[in-house]
Specification:
By secondary structure, chain A is an all-beta fold. The chains are: A mainly beta (about 120), B mainly beta (about 110).
Amino acid sequence: KAGVTQTPRYLIKTRGQQVTLSCSPISGHRSVSWYQQTPGQGLQFLFEYFSETQRNKGNFPGRFSGRQFSNSRSEMNVSTLELGDSALYLCASSKDRGRVGTGELFFGEGSRLTVL
Amino acid sequence: GENVEQHPSTLSVQEGDSAVIKCTYSDSASNYFPWYKQELGKRPQLIIDIRSNVGEKKDQRIAVTLNKTAKHFSLHITETQPEDSAVYFCAASGFQKLVFGTGTRLLVSP
């Protein structure tokens, strides 16, 4: 059974550009969550999608957006990149037992974004 | 919204010692408390979780305790081994999003 796949694994952008990251969840998992990981800040929740609908959103500016497709694959987009957006972006999928946050999260290896 | 605080940020122990990591949460509606382990350069993985109707759960050398009244929960690792060296994250959720603590870097020295 394939795990959660994220692409690209590494990318370098300059300030002001935009970036799109992709996540393919484990087959059968309908919930996809996105987290930003930076040293000292842990895992900060960006948003969660379930059946193509954003079910929850974290405290990030509107430059961060996402979507989910009918096959549960998800993308997140960051526009007008800032230096502080440099981080590891992790995607996680879960079976979702009907209640948010109570199923095991299976993480991808992440997309490491560097903004210069 | 939920806020999770985790202590300590770093923890160094000798092989064979016990390690304890503590977390507090703010939302009394939270009812699910997982712990994730992230080894260097790898993805976080669930190691144990506990629900609010249970006070303690054990799995071999690891255990988690929950005090709902005080709104805190702890991870206990006994007989630590070098392969336990990693960053450990606690998390809490109720009906909303899963919120993680800032992580504890555990270093087990041989």
